[in-house]
Design goal:
This protein has helices at 4-16, 38-45, 76-87, 91-100, 110-128; strands at 61-63, 69-71. The chain has 138 residues and is mainly alpha-helical.
Length: 138
C-alpha cells in the first residue's frame, strides 16, 4: 500500500544513507491510498534478475507430522480459484465456481442482503456461545 510520495521520501533517505531497499508486496492486494503503482514502477526500472514474482499460495497449508508445511487438500480447489481470481483468468467461470461452492451469494436487494447477514451473524453467535447473556442463560 506504499504510495509514490512516501516511496520517493523513503528512497531519498536510503540514497542519502547509502542503504539498499527491498520492496516486498502484492500487486493484487489493496492499492495505495495516494498515487500507487510503486511495485510496477520499480519492476519497470529494475534489472530483471533483481526481482522475482511469487506465484504459489502459502496460506492453504497445514503442518505434517514431521513439522513441514504441506498443501491442505481440503482447500486445494479454493487455493486454485484464488490464483485464478488474482490473475484475472476466466472471471465468469471463477465466479460461477465460487457461487456453486456457496462462497458467493447473490441477493435480489439490500433488504434481503441485510436479512441474510443478520441471520448469519445470529447463527455464529449462537454456535460460538457469544450470544449468551450474563448468568449463563441463552
Amino acid at each position: 500500500m506504499l504510495d509514490q510520495d512516501t516511496a520517493r521520501a523513503l528512497l531519498t533517505v536510503a540514497d542519502e544513507c547509502q542503504a539498499r531497499i527491498a520492496l516486498i508486496g502484492d500487486r493484487h492486494q489493496l492499492a495505495a491510498v495516494g498515487r500507487g503503482g510503486v511495485l510496477d514502477l520499480a519492476i519497470a526500472h529494475a534489472d530483471p534478475a533483481a526481482h522475482l514474482t511469487l506465484t504459489g499460495v502459502h496460506r492453504f497449508t497445514r503442518t505434517d507430522r514431521a513439522g513441514r508445511p504441506v498443501p491442505d487438500t481440503e482447500y486445494a480447489e479454493y487455493a486454485d480459484l484464488t490464483l485464478a481470481m488474482r490473475a484475472g483468468e476466466h472471471p465468469g467461470a471463477v465466479f460461477d465456481r465460487l457461487a456453486a461452492r456457496g462462497q458467493i451469494q447473490l441477493h435480489p436487494d439490500d433488504a434481503e442482503l441485510q436479512t441474510a447477514l443478520a441471520a448469519t451473524a445470529a447463527a455464529f453467535f449462537r454456535s460460538s456461545g457469544r450470544g449468551r447473556r450474563r448468568g449463563g442463560h441463552p
